[in-house]
Amino acid sequence: MSVLDNFESWKDFLGDRLHQAEGQGMDDQSVSELAYEIGGYLATEVEAKNDQEAVLRELWNVADEKEQHAIANMMVKLVQSEGTQS
User: Fold this and answer.
1) Which positions ≥6 away from 10 have C-beta within 8 Å?
2) How far apart are CA 53 and CA 5, in angstroms?
3) What does the alpha-carbon distance between residue 16 and residue 44 come to, in Å, rounded to a whole number?
4) Burial class (CB within 10 angstroms; exposed 0-12, middle 13-18, buried 19+) of 14
5) CA dist 33 to 9, 21, 37, 78, Å?
6) Is the full-model pTM beyond 0.70?
């Protein structure tokens, strides 16, 4: 099963990556920019595997760049308490 198949697994995965980045000294601005880049990649290159991912993709695709940064920042906030390394 892919981490993308289940939204809770996806949030755990993102949470783990966020904690790793923070543990390596990545600052909030860098995390935010990385989240934005990942969001763009997922929206254009990865097929949504569940309803939540489909909604995020649709929102991303209708958003302008500023709104996409806001979506990325909200995803970071959403997963800050997720993952196994919290």
Assistant:
1) 3, 4, 52, 53
2) 9
3) 23
4) buried
5) 22, 12, 6, 16
6) yes
Mind listing the pLDDT tens digit for each residue in 11-40? 887 888 888 888 899 898 998 888 888 888
Q: Tens digit of pLDDT for each residue in 39-72?
A: 888 888 888 888 988 999 999 999 999 999 999 9
Task: Give which of 21, 31, 32 is closest to 69, Cα–Cα.
Answer: 32
Domains in the chain (CATH in brackets) are 7-79 (1.10.760.20)
Cα distance between residue 71 and residue 18, in whole Å: 16
